[in-house]
Amino acid sequence: MKEINVAVIGSGSTYCPELVDGLIKASNSLKLKKLALMDIDKRKRTIVGGLCVRMLKNAKIDCSVVMTDSLEEALRDADFVVTQIRVGKLPARHLDETIPLKYNLIGQETTGIGGFFKALRTIPAMAEICVKIEEICPAAWLINFTNPSGIISEFIQNYTKVKSMGLCNVPINMIDDIKAAVGDNADITYLGLNHLSWITSVKVNKQEQLSKLFEEGFAPEVMANIHDDGFDIDCLKAAGGIPSSYLQYYYNRAEKLRHLKDSDESRAQVCMEIEEDLLELYSNESVVTKPALLDLRGGHKYSLAAVSLIDSIANDKRDIHVVNIKNEGTLSFMDKDDIVEISAVIGKNGAQAVQVDELDNRHITGLMRIVKSYEKLTVEAARTGNDSAALNALMLHPLIGDFESAKACYEEMKQAHKQYLPQFFK
Question: What is the pTM of this model?
């Protein structure tokens, strides 16, 4: 049994008990020696950390737990670092979701101009974390859940020396939904960018099932944090793949914008209410297991994705996971250093991409290329504070479309988030 020390950066997140629940369930193959829970929010760190301690005690997991606001203390002796930070917390997300609506732009925390500003705020903070990892625990693996995960991974893997993989719970949910429909022996091809992904092949006994699934109206269960507008069957046939939930923002753009404008609350406000309910529940000393209410936050199978990946690295399992890693030639239509979301064999030395058959699909390849160009310009803007790079990124994004609206929204959001964007206000 492999002994590991795990540091969670952003442990005040109400998702954290989900991660601890996963570590408890994996205790037959992973011996948790130390769990460091780091967050700058004392109230949330204390409440969430208290539940995590009770969960471990209830499961008879004998490990030391450190709760701290010190990044250095948390990283000391870490084998794995899980990052799940939210710069500006949910009030900043509320601005990301609501300001764009004034300009007839979709406000969403991981895509469009909302996700763009989340990346601008987050990359400098992740840069600081990576510097400390390089200094204190350079051998550690960083497992990043911080959104927008693909863009954050684009920064970490191309601009730092930290060993890292980006992770999301969308792939594991999509693949499990497919297997529930056609059987566990299905051979599934999943590819894309984070929150811009498709299942492009489903084979059972070497027979392609994709057309049959289209005709049956199959669609994976939509994530809890996304209003389900459905997908038109002709849209799926034209795209040539089963899309992730987040592609509803691309394929159902007008309906998504209408729904967001008509909503009484932003998703951030809904999450604030759920979060307070969860924190009240977590404060109850009699609660010693992960509450079911947590699934309403949209983190379904988050712990399974995270802990099984840690288990595969720690115990050199050589099994397959979908992760955000460098392309390295796996997808011929993408650059070598592009971060893509693909299946890979995971072991002690990291990820080795599973070879993908040549993809003859100009819709998917074209959309991936244009969004990757947006992501790279976003990283440049976040690193340099360059307005031209920022506007260039927005001009490329498929959910923007109008320069005057984009520029006006950009200027308002830049001022609204000024305290978290020092690179733009030197």
Answer: 0.95
